[in-house]
Amino acid sequence: MANRRPVIAGNWKMFKTVSEAEDYAVKFLEEVKAVTDLDIILCAPFTALYPLKNELEESIVHLGAQNMASADQGAFTGEISAQMLLDVACTYVIIGHSERRELFGETDEEIAMKVQKALTSGLTPILCVGENLNVREEGKAAERVQGQVSRALSGLSTEDLSRVIVAYEPIWAIGTGKTASSKDAQEMCASIRATLSDLMGLASERVPILYGGSVKADNIAELMTEPDVDGALVGGASLDPIGFSKLIHNANPLVARVEGI
Ligand code: PEP
Questions:
Q1: How far does residue 74's CA lie from ligand 1's centre (Å)?
Q2: Whose CA is nearest to atom 6 of ligand 1?
Q3: Nearest protein CA to atom 3 of ligand 1, as residue
Q4: What residues does ligand 1 touch, defined as CB less than 6 Å away?
Q5: Backbone CA torsion sign across 83, 89, 91, 93
Q6: Does the pLDDT at position 250 exceed 70?
């Protein structure tokens, strides 16, 4: 990994009430307080963001949301704006998660607008891309994912692009227990970096690219040995504070290399 700081982000999806989130934060902070070598992000449901702001204040754990609107404000029932997220100390936001694309019909066009709004508002977007099983079996995974990346990001300045995180999440691996092999994850993350390089040249070397899809405490180290895998977006395995902190401790790429994993 070329001088990129690893990132491990948890995506709680639609889990955890306010009291569950507060309880999690207390236990989790105790386990990860000594971590210095990677960035940790918790992407929580909207209702848990404000209480988590208080719990995570002055800690090393960053707060993220799982979606946001591309509009600033207005008659958009059920939506949340970038300003509202900033107001509760969010610094990251997941955009274009496959569940948003598949279940809520989000298009590449909307995703591009959300990425742009996140950047102009001062939030770091975690742009999710990934192919379904049919596309993979047709041998078109790289083409699909490269198209998603360029449609979401083209037109942005190199400066803006340098503030984006991309998460490669094959849909067939999300919540299924089937992880991509580290070789496949590397191949796809490298093809994403090639697309970023077309958009922003050498600065693409600075963009963190995460893998997501059934990442667990016992497979993260192997994934992290790959040169273009800079961390993980973790769903199910982020829900337990002790299990997630174990995953984070196992994610240190230096440990993975020394142990020859
Ligand atoms: C996700 O929701 O982004 C995800 C990768 O989920 P899981 O880790 O449960 O596969």
A1: 32
A2: 235
A3: 235
A4: 11, 13, 169, 174-175, 212-215, 233-237
A5: negative
A6: yes
- For the record, the structure tokens of 67 come out as 């979606």
What is the distance between the alpha carbons of residues 225 and 214, in angstroms, rounded to a whole number? 17
DSSP string, 77-95: TT---HHHHHHTT--EEEE
Catalytic site residue 97?
Answer: yes
Ligand 1 centre from 218 Cα, in Å? Answer: 15
Task: Write the single-letter amino acid at 150.
Answer: S
- Asked whether 205 and 2 are in contact (CB, 8 A), the reply is yes
pLDDT tens digits, one per residue of 177-203? 888 899 999 999 999 999 999 999 999
210: β partners: 167
Q: Which of 7, 8, 12, 13 to mutate to test the pocket of ligand 1 (most atoms within 8 A of CB)?
A: 13
Query: From ligand 1's centre to the CA of 78, what distance in Å?
Result: 24
pLDDT (tens digit per residue) in 28-85 = 999 999 999 999 999 999 999 999 999 999 999 999 999 999 999 999 999 999 999 9
Which tokens hold the place of 107?
């298009």
How many angstroms separate the CA atoms of 38 and 4, rounded? 10
What is the distance, to the nearest Å, from the Cα of residue 134 to the centroid of all Cα atoms in its chain? 24
